[in-house]
Amino acid sequence: MTSFQQARIDLGSQLRQLRETARLSGKELAEQLRWQPSKVSRLENARQTATEDDVVVWAQAVRASPDTTDELIRQAIALLERHDDWKQRHRSGLAALQEDVRDLEARTKLFRVFEPGIVVGLLQTSEYARHVFRKVKRLYSAADQIDAAVRVRMQRQEILYDRTRTFRFVVSEATLRTLLAPPEVMRGQLDRLLAVSTLPNVEFGVIPFDAEFPSNPVNGFWIYNDSMVGVATMTKDLILRDPDDIAFYVRAFDDFAKVAEFEEAGREVIIRVLHDYRQQTAY
């Protein structure tokens, strides 16, 4: 067991003890917090990492003392800032990872995402996602929860239709052409991107091959509001909260967006790639 997982278990045990001391069942607490009952169980049993917001509302519901609340917040922030070990992260299961991401997205009003090589999870079709999860499972020996992970990923996408949120996505043309699934699946995926790009609260940009990149597209990154940046590497998920780091990634996103094609011009790039896939599957 890693130190990260042990710290998550310790925090979950403290949360459970506070709930039991307050004489609340998991279902009663979930109702107070307007959560799914399963979230209470996941947090208490260390299948999901509690966020700062999670522990604040939990502490309020169980009437924890200010000192106890401050300590819970400290532990939650420390967990989120840890560079989670990839072996332990995937051992908890593909579906649990998706639940963690969904809770983070629920607290976000402005999404800015750059991805140079994979279609963003919020925009994936179920079949594309299934092929991605199969590759993740093979590479990381993750718990075999592909069906559940796909289901949660599809549920996550309901947030796209919330008009109170704004989504700005920028991908490279290489993203559209990287065969993470068979050509027929890629065709369905591009059709999905065409549809999503017309949503009023979604901006979807493509950097075409003939555009000069403003900087080296080393990795993808997600900017959540103006408070946090997620950067995924092959073995770590970095959570950056330092204002200087956030400002850097905002500038980087803006630079990529300046050379991307949006709206009809962006859809023309997608349609061109889609035509190429259709030719491949015609033979």
Automatic annotation (TrEMBL):
GO molecular function ontology, one term from the record: DNA binding
SUPFAM superfamilies found in the cross-reference section: lambda repressor-like DNA-binding domains
Annotated Pfam families: DUF5753 (PF19054), HTH_31 (PF13560)
Annotated transmembrane regions: none
Domain HTH cro/C1-type: 14-69
InterPro entries per UniProt: Cro/C1-type_HTH (IPR001387), DUF5753 (IPR043917), Lambda_DNA-bd_dom_sf (IPR010982)
Protein name: XRE family transcriptional regulator
Source organism (scientific name): Nonomuraea longispora
